[in-house]
């Protein structure tokens, strides 16, 4: 392993032998420098997974954000325990101005770093360094001195009326674009093109199938990678599904750490089972031939290099390449999940307007958002509001009444434009006539023509 890699901070993931309280925890990040393991950062990553139940993919992202900050501390010979607001501002400007990182990403970095310091304060690895205390919790001498890292307290009220308090950094940049505008959601034709592009790749069968899980079921990348052989139905169960026209239910750990059901069409199940029998079996055979003591995992989507479940970043990377190759910008595999979200919301909107979900006491907007959140595994119904706005806007634009209104507007604008052009032509004709009169030395008639033009211009003004 190159020494420079360790000097810059190396993230090593635990394997399946990692046991904590009799439970296996593969994939927990550990941060290693050339002088050894960073115990504080690594302990935080472990707590995020074991204590807080965060998804491995989320904790890996935290590690990828904290590592460059700690590397920056080391380059400045600054012990992380002595960092204050001023140093955090230097880091913020290094990201924003020095590295041209966008405001949302800079603020995300500050949030993650603040969370690390809050954890360290709560674990008493630093004391009275971060201002996460109410006035009655602060000793008098500390109150006079102040905190090295300041904090602000925020409150959030749930739909059920419960109020939650939390702490956050005061140092985030203003001006981050807060918009409900959706990123590009691939159309049907664009999605088909992406499938065609990826199907031509060496592992196209596997990768196109992952696309379909995102598109047809609405699963996130971490959820796709949880799909197992043992989740698949038996042949008799599959035949029953086909006869009844029902979806197959499996349970996955979704965002927030809760296990929830998802429903998969028989067609997608059949395609997945076929991949397990053929394409995946080829990958397993390849790994058995080159990896000593290789044991086949239960997960469906595995790597040809390691024989283990794919890394989430690999899923993102291959998705981005496929969309770029298909000429689709500002889209990735997660946007296929957005297609499913639009489809779910659209179905519910159709149910509302057909009268199936309207009652005397029903708030149809909240009903749609709540049901859609349940189906898509969203923790907050509000996160789906942009999709509802998009669907309603599209529905309005396609309505007959809107088409008539647009036609009337177009006609009014055309009539106004025609009138403007006619006036311009008329004035040009009069000017041409006046010019001819002047050339013929018929000055009185020319003056009369010019006065008429002037009068028309004044009336027009």
From TrEMBL:
GO MF term set: DNA binding
Any single biological process term in GO: DNA recombination
Transmembrane segments: none
Record keywords: DNA recombination, DNA-binding
Keyword Transport part of the UniProt annotation: no
Top-level taxon: Bacteria
Name by which UniProt lists this protein: Integrase
